[in-house]
Amino acid sequence: MSLIHHPLGFHFDNSFVRLGEAFSRPVMPTAVSGPSLIVFNEALAYQLGGKPYSADYLSCFSGNALPEGAKPISQVYAGHQFGSFNPQLGDGRAVLLGEVLSPRGKRFDLQLKGAGITPFSRGGDGRAALGPVLREYLMSEAMHALGVPTTRALAAVTTGEQVWRERAFPGAILTRIASSHIRIGTFEYFARKGARNEVKVLADHVITRHYPECLSASNPYLALFDCVADAQAQLVAKWMSLGFVHGVMNTDNASICGQTIDYGPCAFVDAFSESASFSSIDTGGRYAYGRQGSIIQWNLARFAECLLYLFDDDINRAVSLAERRLADFPALFDRYWYALMSDKLGLSKGAPDATTDLCANLVKDLLMLMERGSADFTLSFRCLSLGLKSGDFTPFEALFSDLEVVEVRHWVVRWKEALLLMGLVDREIAENMLNVNPSIIPRNHQVEKALAEALEAYDSKSDEQVFPYFNKMIKALNTPYCIEHDGGLLAASPLNGGAGYRTFCGT
């Protein structure tokens, strides 16, 4: 049975559907019994060309109707999950309604997550629970405000129905926006089947959609690999500069366009540790904080394998080209990483090269002291910035255990000497630092508090679903660098430094 189409104002142009049936399957979202709006991202809807909010949005975002021009599909892909290859995954609970062209001509996928069974559900119910939907909404919008390339959240609704995991939870649906949902795993699906023509069709589509500069390159597919590697290096370096741990860096979660996608078991580091790992299913720490750079290199090696026959007709030359680029990746990643960390320390403005020994050694030594002293990652850089502005580094020193304070003071002297050497003015550089070192992030314990409140409010069966703490966090996290947040509840670290915190996938 076809669904009613509502004119939401979006201009659809569904290029992925035109690639052919090998790449996706048509599927209708499954209607729900009692949808109710939790949150609507009005500013994002306006950027996409949407109309002001009306009940039509609720109908479409719950799967009970379709936006005018939508051609709903679920995409097929494969993926390496914790190093083991799964030959077919696909959108098991997501329906891509179509591609929206914004008033500025940019193309975005409009997807419902938790919209019911698809051809790739693999025995699952295709639904999502309220907690994971709110987590992704909050996390993705916070990451956007922090300047991290990411999928966005347009809306979240409850369905009026229950989903069963270890127990019954209220059902919900997230409306997600992305530059695209094409993954390294999408390429793997076709490459492992030996479907070279489909790999080429997909590569050409990605070049046209995301990296048109590759069209003029002498080897467009090698240029495509370089662009994807560069985007991934920038993305993961940005994650780590903020203390973010994705938690499930499988190749099916590695976006070709370089956006953060899927926020299941993610978390932010509180007390700093290179080995910080929060996901309950990452028992070996494969995706721990300090391993994220090497993991994305591993994922890129899988991407290169998919493209070998496009790199060169001679397989030996193709392998050599891929190996050289993969060998160069650690240096590429380090350039982005040290540039970001030099920004956080106020050093990049005067440094001709952000990876100079001076900057790199100060970064390494500070992180070592933070780990030894169990210092909070976010507060360390924020308090250092505030200390440079005020001249009082006592709050910064207080973040470390007593055993490290003398070494911390010595490090501050070295750092200030470096600023002086580069001719940088304290007050000016302090303002720059405050603009890159956030006052607040989505603290793990605060996120859990917001989700617990939402579940309690839903279970109370109030006529109006109002989640005040969730809304308070959304509003505050929209301005993460604002000095008004300093010293407030949302800026505080947990009492135990976040020890023992665990996240769960939510599927």
From TrEMBL:
Indicate yes or no for the key word Nucleotidyltransferase: yes
Which cofactors are required for activity? Mg(2+); Mn(2+)
- Residues binding Mg(2+) are N253, D262
Alphabetized UniProt keyword annotations:
ATP-binding, Magnesium, Manganese, Metal-binding, Nucleotide-binding, Nucleotidyltransferase, Transferase
- One function term, GO molecular function aspect: magnesium ion binding
Catalyzed chemical reaction(s): L-tyrosyl-[protein] + UTP = O-(5'-uridylyl)-L-tyrosyl-[protein] + diphosphate; L-threonyl-[protein] + ATP = 3-O-(5'-adenylyl)-L-threonyl-[protein] + diphosphate; L-seryl-[protein] + ATP = 3-O-(5'-adenylyl)-L-seryl-[protein] + diphosphate; L-seryl-[protein] + UTP = O-(5'-uridylyl)-L-seryl-[protein] + diphosphate
What transmembrane ranges does the database entry give? none
Q: Where do the catalytic residues lie?
A: D252 (proton acceptor)
Annotated positions binding ATP: G90, G92, R93, K113, D125, G126, R176, R183, D262
Say which enzyme class the record assigns: transferase
Q: What is its EC number?
A: 2.7.7.-, 2.7.7.108
Q: Give a yes or no for keyword Transcription regulation in this entry.
A: no
Known PANTHER family for this protein?
A: PROTEIN ADENYLYLTRANSFERASE SELO, MITOCHONDRIAL
Query: What job does this protein perform?
Result: Nucleotidyltransferase involved in the post-translational modification of proteins. It can catalyze the addition of adenosine monophosphate (AMP) or uridine monophosphate (UMP) to a protein, resulting in modifications known as AMPylation and UMPylation.
Q: Which family does it belong to?
A: Belongs to the SELO family.
State the name under which the record lists this protein: Protein nucleotidyltransferase YdiU
